[in-house]
Specification:
With 102 residues, the protein is α+β, with helices and mostly antiparallel strands. Helices cover 51% and strands 21% of the residues. The chain has a 4-stranded mixed β-sheet with strand order 3-2-1-4. The longest helix is centred in the middle third of the chain and has 15 residues.
């Protein structure tokens, strides 16, 4: 099972590819991995901020597939804009304040 530090390391190793191929401006982890509460069945909750004009459905789906491949587990990917649309203020605030960026 990967730890938060291992995930951050992998994201840093792929930083150039994420930027050049998908237009990733910033990427981070939230949820159980960020809190150190993950288990064998936990997915990886990822928040991503794309460069202007790069937040396309194709980039979103391909990035999700890549992250699932490199992490070896399911990934729940949220964009920064997607977080803003979460209705529950406490949930939105929790993600925004506790996300750990690579």
């Amino acid at each position: 099972m990967k730890t938060l530090e291992e995930i951050k390391k992998v994201l840093k190793e792929h930083k150039k590819e994420l930027k050049e191929k998908y237009g990733v401006k910033r990427i981070g982890i939230f949820g159980s991995f960020a809190r150190g509460e993950q288990n064998e069945r936990s997915d990886v909750d990822v928040i991503v901020e794309f460069e202007n004009g790069k937040a396309t459905l194709d980039n979103f789906m391909e990035l999700t597939e890549l992250l699932e491949k490199i992490f070896g587990r399911k990934v729940d990917l949220l964009t920064k804009e997607g977080v803003k649309s979460i209705r529950l203020k406490d949930v939105r605030k929790n993600i925004e304040e506790r996300a750990i960026y690579a």
